[in-house]
Amino acid sequence: MDRPNTAVVLVIEDDAQIRRFLRATLVDNGYHYLEASTAQDGLRQVGMQHPDLVILDLGLPDMDGLEVTRRLRDWTSTPIIVLSARNRERDKVDALDAGADDYLTKPFGTAELLARMRVAMRHAIQIAQGTDDPVFTTGGLRVDLAHRQVFVDETEIHLTPIEYKLLLVLVQHAGKVVTRKHLLHDVWGPSYEDEMHYLRVYVGQLRRKLEAEPMRPRYLITEPGVGYRLKVE
Ligand code: CA
User: Fold this and answer.
1) Among 185, 186, 151, which residue's Cα sits nearest to residue 169?
2) 59 CA to middle of ligand 1, Å?
3) Cα separation of 166 and 170, whole Å?
4) 38 CA to middle of ligand 1, Å?
5) Tell me, what DSSP letter sits at residue 63?
6) Ligand 1 centre and the CA of 21: distance in Å?
7) Per-residue pLDDT tens digits for 169-203
8) Distance in Å, CA 58 to ligand 1 centroid
9) In angstroms, how far is the first alpha carbon of the chain from the final one?
10) H or E element, residue 150
11) Cα separation of 97 and 92, whole Å?
12) pLDDT (tens digit per residue) in 128-142
């Protein structure tokens, strides 16, 4: 049995239908639900209620969701999951680069929503408590961060320093999407943020070393137009 989950979730969304869906889903799953239909009300409630997670629509009537993300990140590290309309890749990428933790594209399903919420909140708790495990495992992939060793099904895999660094950034954000710009910045440095082909080459190399079927990756998932996600199993 899971222990009762009383995390407080604030939904900032102007679409009443989506709010109703989120309210029903979150209350059913034991979350304490709060809502705001404007950015101003949302920002005010974050300050007053200190939610454990914010679900933020990017298309709000009174302020761009991107600006809301920036304003929140000025003072709080509360996880933010943004909701975006289909085909607005640029918005999602900008929101992630502004400090959002993850995104969902409308329409989204309950299972996907709850999974993203769990990842975002678990990550926040790990950062707050400093309890990051020195060994990361997902499926048959194991990364020993203390010894910089990588294993697939107990066979050690030799990675180049760049390949390892790329995998490390994905491990540090396991389960969450990491934008291409973020990866390029952290692996190669700030002047390489536009070198998208570096990423394609190195992700391809990593997949050939880590994946049983590199063309149908199990661990290193492409988020089209946005970045990559290391899948947590
Ligand atoms: Ca909207």
Assistant:
1) 186
2) 4
3) 7
4) 9
5) S
6) 14
7) 999 899 999 999 999 999 998 888 889 999 999 99
8) 7
9) 19
10) strand 149-152
11) 9
12) 666 566 888 999 999
